[in-house]
């Protein structure tokens, strides 16, 4: 259902100049829930995504969303306009950019999608529009990719158009925090830009927190996710130490969590996956390398996180060796492959690298995940989920998905619990 576009620079006060209150560019795990949150508050919303298949999935409801967002999608129906044409955003009073910002195989930021989205927003911007970037990126991106190109077009930022950064804060698969209840940090290129962005985001967000600049808002998001990365790396180290000392690390973590101040529990695992933790801190490291600054704590944490899947493979080799057989030729079942419970998302999932490592060692590998019917590893191996948990020489418990419990396995099944929290196996060994 494509929407008619206005020419770039069309005057904001022209009769019927706008067909939409907000256009959301990028309808992935952030953009679609954001569009639905705006629509639920009565705004006229246009969704823009270059992937026609994604739009068809949205129309048919075949998308990975929280139950509450699925209800919003059904309620919106055809009233949620979608298009593959970025020029259609010119017909909106505001534009919100929600595209992925991954890293490549060398852990260098991949700015391709962000650059394309910002270029399109600038090309079709018109006086009166508010443009808000939400994608996690390097400090200065909002000025570099939006404010400066808009000024080059002759549009005065803070007078003709209004530009701000407000980092996304969506936790896929987690329904404990409603989208509108999570505070939005807002930083404008100018104070008027911040005010206009607050006016827009305040249409659905209950709480707003303004910072003094777009750069401060960009750095806020990097701090949030780098904090998590560092603590994940730390708790993985404690898990290793607890194993050497014969202690249950989860018992120790839960005991520490009884302290009502100065401590936040993190739990160890097979690595870190998803769109944030394995990627976002590298935007900071990449930028700081240009200024010859190496933050040692962040760098060490990211190196440790990157090495964790290989550690799982080596632990599998050791566990099988202790049981009297080698990894080569062993039947290994990976239980759960999504990067976290309750989602279909495989982006940066440690399971993909673990499977490749097991295959490289000569193991026969299968997996079961009720939410992920098929996958392709980084090494190009295609696998389909087996029907259910089944006996194997070794089961590696990777993601505790609903419907992927150990209870269906024999009581004496050898299980390498890479989550430290998979109950139900007498021969369960921790990572």
TrEMBL record:
Entry-linked SMART domains: UDPG_MGDP_dh_C
Domain of life the protein comes from: Bacteria
Pfam families on file: UDPG_MGDP_dh, UDPG_MGDP_dh_C, UDPG_MGDP_dh_N
Domain called UDP-glucose/GDP-mannose dehydrogenase C-terminal: residue spans: 333-424
Assigned keywords, A-Z: NAD, Oxidoreductase
SUPFAM superfamilies for this protein: 6-phosphogluconate dehydrogenase C-terminal domain-like, NAD(P)-binding Rossmann-fold domains, UDP-glucose/GDP-mannose dehydrogenase C-terminal domain
Similarity-based family: Belongs to the UDP-glucose/GDP-mannose dehydrogenase family.
Descriptive protein name: Nucleotide sugar dehydrogenase
Species whose genome carries this gene: Actinomadura algeriensis
């Amino acid at each position: 259902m494509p929407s008619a576009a206005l020419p770039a620079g069309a005057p904001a006060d022209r009769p019927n100049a706008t067909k939409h209150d907000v256009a959301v560019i990028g309808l992935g795990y952030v953009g679609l829930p954001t569009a639905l949150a705006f629509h639920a508050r009565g705004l006229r919303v246009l969704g823009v995504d270059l992937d026609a298949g994604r739009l068809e999935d949205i129309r048919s409801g075949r998308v990975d969303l929280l139950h509450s967002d699925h209800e919003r999608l059904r309620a919106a129906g055809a009233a949620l306009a979608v298009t593959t044409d970025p020029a259609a955003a010119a017909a909106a009073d505001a534009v919100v950019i929600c595209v992925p910002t991954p890293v490549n195989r060398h852990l260098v930021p991949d700015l391709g999608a962000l650059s394309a989205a910002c270029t399109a927003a600038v090309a079709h911007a018109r006086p009166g529009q508010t443009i808000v970037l939400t994608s996690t990126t390097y400090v200065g991106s909002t000025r570099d990719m939006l404010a400066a190109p808009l000024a080059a077009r002759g549009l005065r930022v803070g007078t003709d158009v209004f530009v701000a950064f407000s980092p996304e804060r969506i936790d896929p698969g987690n329904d404990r925090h409603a989208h509108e209840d999570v505070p939005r940090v807002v930083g404008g290129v100018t104070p008027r830009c911040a005010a206009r962005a607050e006016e827009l985001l305040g249409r659905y967000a209950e709480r707003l927190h303004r910072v003094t600049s777009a750069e401060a808002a960009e750095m806020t998001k990097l701090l949030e996710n780098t904090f998590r990365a560092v603590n994940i790396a730390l708790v993985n180290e404690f898990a290793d130490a607890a194993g050497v000392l014969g202690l249950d690390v989860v018992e120790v973590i839960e005991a520490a969590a009884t302290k009502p101040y100065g401590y936040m529990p993190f739990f160890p695992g097979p690595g870190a996956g998803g769109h944030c933790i394995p990627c976002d801190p590298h935007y900071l490291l990449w930028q700081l390398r240009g200024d010859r600054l190496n933050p040692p704590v962040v760098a060490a944490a990211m190196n440790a996180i990157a090495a964790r899947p290989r550690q799982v493979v080596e632990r599998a080799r050791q566990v099988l060796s202790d049981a009297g057989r080698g990894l080569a030729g062993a039947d290994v079942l990976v239980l759960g492959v999504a990067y976290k419970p309750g989602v279909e998302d495989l982006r940066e999932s440690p399971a993909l690298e673990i499977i490749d490592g097991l295959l490289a060692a000569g193991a026969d590998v299968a997996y079961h995940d009720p939410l992920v019917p098929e996958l392709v590893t980084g090494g190009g191996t295609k696998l389909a989920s087996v029907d259910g948990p089944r006996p194997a020489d070794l089961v590696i418990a990777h993601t505790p998905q609903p419907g992927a419990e150990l209870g269906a396995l024999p009581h004496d099944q050898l299980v390498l619990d890479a989550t430290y929290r998979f109950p139900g196996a007498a021969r369960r060994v921790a990572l």
